Amino acid sequence: MATGSRVLWKGAITFGLVHIPVALHTASTEQGVDFDWLDKRSMDPVGYKRINKKTGKEIDKENIVKGVAYESGHYVIISPEEIAAAYPRTTQTIEIQRFIDASDIPFLYLERPYYVAPVNKGEKVYALLRETLLKTGKVGLAKVVIQTKQHLAALVPSGPALVLNLMRWGDEIKSLEGLDLPSEGVKGAKLSANEMKMAEQLVDDMSGDWDPDDFKNEFKNSIMKLVEKKVKAGDTETVIQPEEEAPGESAEVIDLTELLARSLKGKKPAVKAPAAKTAAKKAPAKKAAKTAARKTAEKARKAA
Fold this sequence. Notes:
By secondary structure, the protein is of the alpha+beta class. Among the domains are: about 1-50 and about 80-175 and about 245-270, Ku70, Chain: A, Domain 2; about 280-304. It has helices at about 80-85, 125-135, 195-205, 220-230, 260-265, 275-304, and strands spanning about 10-15, 20-25, 65-70, 75-80, 95-100, 110-120, 140-145, 150-160, 160-165. The chain has a seven-stranded mixed barrel with strand order 1-2-6-9-8-7-5. The chain has a two-stranded antiparallel sheet with strand order 3-4. A hairpin with a 2-residue loop joins strand 8 (about 150-160) and strand 9 (about 160-165). The longest helix is centred in the C-terminal third of the chain and has 31 residues, at about 275-304. The chain is extended and about 60 Å long.
């Protein structure tokens, strides 16, 4: 399925001294059915009210503060300024911390995938990283900030693409403590040789190739068939929805393929020079534009 999606984020993959300019695209969609709340009398969208749970009365946004419970019934109030100061610094980079064996990451930690595509002539370095990961069987373990939230992520080769799979942090995974699980191993679980043989045979009989098209969301398909039937019958209502805002895009990246060798030698690059050079070029142009605008205004006044 083609993504057909707009760019969600622009930045660069970094490892060693190398920058690979890239853009993120959505790689997945929610497969559930989105039931919106509507007022049956007017077909207007229904939202959520801010209700005081004790009085049952609606309150203004200005009277709401954010608090964190440190024990039952006791809160610490955090101001908007304190929250803003705690946000991670946006670096517009997918900063690879280390390379690890792909088999070392349990599926339990994987959360949400994004396609990573090269931009700004970064194709060659992109391909170099992709092919190196494929050949070595490694994935890049990285940190990235998306919309003020810091994520742990795995950079994984998948066919011609690199996929950035956001991960759960270690403290977000619950321990196995308290679960009544059988002992590990055939002997520990008291499994007989005959039971293992039959189970292996059954697994072998049911084995096949991975094909995502073989598996469908039956509930969604049933609901969407009903929706299509009602549309054809003219059994519909018109609802005016608010317009969605396009996400902002910001990136200032440098394609430095030659830094690969320097990374191995441990040298530091002077990556700020191009930015300074660009700023120096823009300054005279900006000054010239202001001068031209001032002259135009003077001519207009004289003509009046």
